[in-house]
Write a structure and sequence with these properties.
The protein has a three-stranded antiparallel sheet. Strands 3-4-5 form a three-stranded antiparallel sheet, with no helix packed on it. The protein is an alpha+beta fold. It is elongated, with a radius of gyration of 16 Å.
């Protein structure tokens, strides 16, 4: 599976996790349009359930593992860290209310930070 990461303030974030609220809306629409229950609709249901869990953890304001991506771990705020790293204590978390760096002592503001994106699509 190709992973799409964005870089912000020198840290990488998973674009799918950052866009989880919009992804849930899109997946729910697809479920509602489904004509029958089959493997595809069951997979959509599991994806919605997984994203709902991520959003529930965001509402708690916790920084916990959202998913594993290839050799990486992804926090519910979208932060990508290497396997073996403690997700909760890793630097680079985003405040899940303001989407600015959680470490406010760094003095970063949205105008001082820059975003870029990369895709880790593998050639087949």
């Amino acid at each position: 599976m190709a992973e799409t990461y964005v870089t912000y303030n020198g840290y990488q974030y998973d674009a799918r996790i950052l866009g989880a609220p919009l992804e849930i809306i899109r997946l729910r629409e697809r479920l509602n349009e489904a004509k029958s229950i089959n493997a595809s609709t069951l997979a959509l249901g599991l994806a919605v359930e997984s994203l709902e869990r991520i959003l529930a953890d965001r509402l708690k304001g916790t920084h916990v593992l959202a998913r594993r991506a290839d050799e990486d771990l992804v926090c519910v705020c979208g932060l990508v860290v290497s396997a073996g790293t403690d997700v909760a204590s890793a630097p680079g978390h985003l405040n899940q209310e303001t989407w600015l760096p959680a470490d406010s002592s760094a003095g970063s503001t949205s105008s001082a930070a820059s975003w870029s994106s990369t895709s880790t699509a593998e050639s087949e």
